[in-house]
């Protein structure tokens, strides 16, 4: 091939490669521009979407929506509850907001919000445990009450009867559901055939707020069990160290509650009970006799002490089969941290004072001096 032909062929190939390179650069430029436009449009759309999702669902709404945030709820769970109840537009955006602002330590409880609230308002309320409306009902359950008495208090204030409440808390299927919900609190112990009332002692004494005109019995029971579970969790290490199961701890706390009228008496009384159990002595506490009898009496008679019952601590060894009432935190704390002493006996005088003794002879002396 001549030199001119080779040169001509080279120029043709060069021209073709140049044209091809131009086409590739043009295609690449179009792709880059397209991607950039899509990114910009996507970012703008995402921004507007997130910004919109963070706004109140309905700025003009005055509707009050009550939600329950269970104990131990994750941010995802809370976000789902808010979205399902129409209080936020998007659960994912709520989670992003919480993570971006590093918000933590949301409080379990019942809250009343409105669709007109800002997301920040809800987050602040959830962090501080602040409800946004006055309760419809505020009911106080004192310490030392039986299930029967608790049912009566609720029936006096709410829409159901005492019998309705007792039927629910004694329903086997319902109890099994609760055992699944509260596995660290409710065990097979409550289903023992000799237990009179399975949830006796487990419904914590406190003041409860309800934001519905007619709260369900299930809601009431769960609120009370949640409070008991929180308290048991707080003292679990000390109770484990003492060797008590949850059921035994609650049973023991109920005895201390019924025997001690004053908070400052409880640790010492718990210590006496510990000493009696270590000696292999029966606890011989009169409130268990009254519970076994199923009636209130001003004075327990000698003939009452022989009643055959798994609750009667004059008959059974150590603790009764189950709690005989609910209890205050101070009673559970006394079980977890009893006062050390050598006392084996105590009695109450007419003024509410307690007199302790190390021996039965001293106890008889105290009885002669301080009892009518």
TrEMBL record:
It comes from Virgibacillus sediminis. Pfam families: YceG (PF02618). It is an enzyme of class 4 (lyase). Functions as a peptidoglycan terminase that cleaves nascent peptidoglycan strands endolytically to terminate their elongation. Its main location: membrane. This is Endolytic murein transglycosylase. Keywords: Cell membrane, Cell wall biogenesis/degradation, Lyase, Membrane, Transmembrane, Transmembrane helix. It is a single-pass membrane protein. The lineage of its organism: Bacteria, Bacillati, Bacillota, Bacilli, Bacillales.
């Amino acid at each position: 091939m001549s030199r001119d032909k080779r040169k001509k062929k080279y120029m043709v190939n060069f021209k073709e490669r140049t044209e091809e390179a131009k086409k590739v650069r043009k295609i690449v430029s179009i792709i880059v521009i397209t991607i950039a436009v899509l990114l910009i449009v996507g970012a703008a759309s995402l921004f507007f979407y997130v910004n919109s999702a963070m706004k109140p669902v309905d700025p003009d709404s005055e509707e009050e929506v009550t939600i329950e945030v269970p104990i131990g709820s994750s941010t995802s769970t809370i976000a789902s509850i808010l979205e399902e109840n129409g209080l936020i537009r998007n659960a994912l955006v709520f989670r992003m907001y919480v993570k971006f602002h590093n918000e933590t330590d949301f409080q379990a409880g019942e809250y009343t919000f409105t669709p007109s609230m800002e997301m920040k308002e809800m987050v602040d309320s959830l962090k501080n445990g602040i409800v946004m409306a006055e309760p419809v009902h505020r009911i106080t359950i004192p310490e030392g009450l039986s299930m029967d008495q608790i049912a009566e208090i609720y029936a006096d204030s709410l829409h159901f009867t005492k019998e309705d409440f007792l039927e629910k808390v004694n329903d086997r299927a319902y109890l099994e559901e609760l055992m699944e919900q509260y596995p660290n609190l409710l065990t097979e112990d409550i289903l023992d055939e000799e237990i009179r009332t399975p949830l006796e002692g487990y419904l914590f004494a406190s003041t409860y707020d309800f934001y519905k005109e007619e709260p369900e019995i299930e809601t009431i029971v769960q609120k009370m069990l949640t409070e008991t579970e929180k308290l048991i969790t707080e003292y679990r290490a000390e109770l484990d160290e003492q060797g008590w199961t949850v059921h035994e701890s609650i049973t023991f706390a109920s005895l201390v509650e019924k025997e001690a009228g004053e908070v400052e008496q409880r640790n010492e009384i718990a210590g006496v009970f510990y000493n009696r159990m270590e000696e292999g002595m029966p606890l011989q506490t009169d409130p268990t006799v009254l519970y076994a009898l199923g009636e209130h009496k001003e004075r327990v008679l000698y003939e009452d002490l022989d009643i055959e019952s798994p609750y009667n601590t004059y008959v059974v060894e150590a603790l009764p089969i189950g709690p005989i009432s609910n209890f205050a935190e101070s009673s559970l704390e006394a079980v977890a941290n009893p006062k050390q002493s050598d006392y084996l006996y105590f009695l109450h005088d007419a003024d509410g004072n307690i007199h302790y003794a190390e021996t039965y002879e001293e106890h008889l002396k105290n009885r002669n001096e301080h009892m009518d």
